[in-house]
Amino acid sequence: MGIKLERYDPQKHDKKVLAELIFKSDEEMNALVYGNNATEIIKILLDMPESYFLPEYTRCAMLDNELVGVIVRFPVSQRKEVDKNAGQGFIKAMGFFGFIRKMALYMKMQKMLGGVLDHDGMYIHTLCVDGRFRGKGIGTEMLQAIAEENSKMYLYVNTKNEGAIRFYKRNGFYEKFHGKLKYKGQVLGEYLMERK
Question: Where are the extended beta strands (E) located within 8-51?
Fold first, then answer.
């Protein structure tokens, strides 16, 4: 398809479009994590130094100057530090009491996101292609670009997202761990997927 993968630049890239793409990467889980105004919270986080979405981690897939996809990744070795910093960002973006109300859910989610990730691997936090551009190889192009940095990659995918699971398997990932949690009468699940 010929995308251009650019480092996120708050002055150049449309935060609203980027926040919507990040949200759509897993609408069910992101609605739980960020709450009713999820895209607004993500937009706030895009401007914060305590976030998963720092420019050094976030790449925007551009096609003819249109933002059509996003991938957020960082070394597994930095994951604990990034999680800790992102937690501070959540408190600021959601407010202390908003964060505290979700604390029990976050602790359950942390257990669900289990499995072993090698420290020399790359962790993909978010990958999403705009629905209008899916099936054109953009997601594969993004993964290939990231593989040039590190071919050993890990990510979590919602067990209900069969399309994403098929996509990742076509791109060399396999299911390594299955985590579940029960929340408000629902069973939620994530697969840890690995590509070596």
Answer: none
